[in-house]
């Protein structure tokens, strides 16, 4: 009887070992799947939602609202201009003496990295559109090597720009705090948007490591298409 009991114990341990292996394999596979994709975001805390790119849940999921702005060439840029494309967005102003020059330098790294990829665009919104007219944006673009074929410097209605920044892109870090519509919008964040205008990442536009991660994440998004 003892040998039967020992054999049964060995068999039980073997089954348990196999179950653990399967669980580890499944967890590893799930982790790899998440690492090979990007989450979706729908509010200012940037809590990740892991959804399949073609999931029915995305039909009602947060996406960037339609917009109508003007770029440095005087061309009208709308949500149709970015349809089917990945884009990175930020908020700046041409007379900014602080963080904006560094943000522009880092956005230029993205312009260089994806220069030959027509599926990737850059959108920089002026938070002082009353000052940043088309001629002012043209001069700024010329001085900093901004090419309108890849990178749009946008001006237009101030209310629309601020609404996009705060309610669509969630670029500010003061999470949950109500902002007066007249309160100045100033942030170093870059936001990654997929071809369906869903938010897929937020990054510190002053940090080179964060920019490197953004470049990697753009390549990941390209693999979804």
UniProtKB/TrEMBL annotation:
Organism: Flavilitoribacter nigricans (strain ATCC 23147 / DSM 23189 / NBRC 102662 / NCIMB 1420 / SS-2) (Lewinella nigricans)
Superkingdom of the organism of origin: Bacteria
Keywords associated with the record: Copper, Disulfide bond, Metal-binding, Signal
Name this polypeptide is given: SCO family protein
GO molecular function: metal ion binding
InterPro entries, per the entry: SCO1/SenC, Thioredoxin-like_sf
Covalent S-S links between cysteines: 96-100
Residues reported in the UniProt entry to bind Cu cation: 96, 100, 186
One Pfam family in the UniProt entry: SCO1-SenC
Record-stated family: Belongs to the SCO1/2 family.
Stretch forming the signal peptide: 1-31
């Amino acid at each position: 009887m003892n040998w039967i009991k020992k054999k049964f114990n060995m068999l039980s341990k073997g089954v348990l070992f196999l179950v653990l292996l399967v669980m580890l394999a499944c967890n590893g596979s799930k982790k790899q799947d998440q690492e090979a994709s990007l989450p979706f975001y729908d509010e200012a805390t940037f809590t990740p939602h892991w959804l399949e790119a073609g999931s029915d849940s995305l039909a009602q999921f947060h996406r960037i609202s339609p917009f109508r702005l003007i770029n440095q060439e005087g061309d009208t840029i709308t949500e149709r201009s970015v349809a089917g494309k990945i884009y990175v967005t930020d908020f700046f102003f041409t007379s900014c003496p602080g963080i904006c020059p560094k943000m522009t330098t880092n956005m230029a790294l993205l312009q260089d990295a994806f220069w030959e990829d027509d599926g990737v665009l850059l959108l920089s919104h002026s938070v002082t559109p009353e000052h940043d007219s088309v001629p002012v944006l043209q001069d700024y673009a010329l001085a900093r090597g901004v090419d309108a074929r890849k990178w749009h410097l946008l001006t237009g209605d101030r209310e629309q720009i601020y609404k996009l920044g705060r309610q669509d892109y969630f670029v500010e870090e003061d999470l949950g705090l109500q902002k007066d519509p007249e309160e100045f919008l100033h942030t170093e964040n870059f936001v990654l948007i997929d071809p369906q205008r869903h938010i897929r990442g937020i990054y510190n536009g002053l940090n080179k490591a964060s920019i490197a991660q953004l470049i990697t994440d753009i390549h990941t998004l390209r693999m979804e298409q």
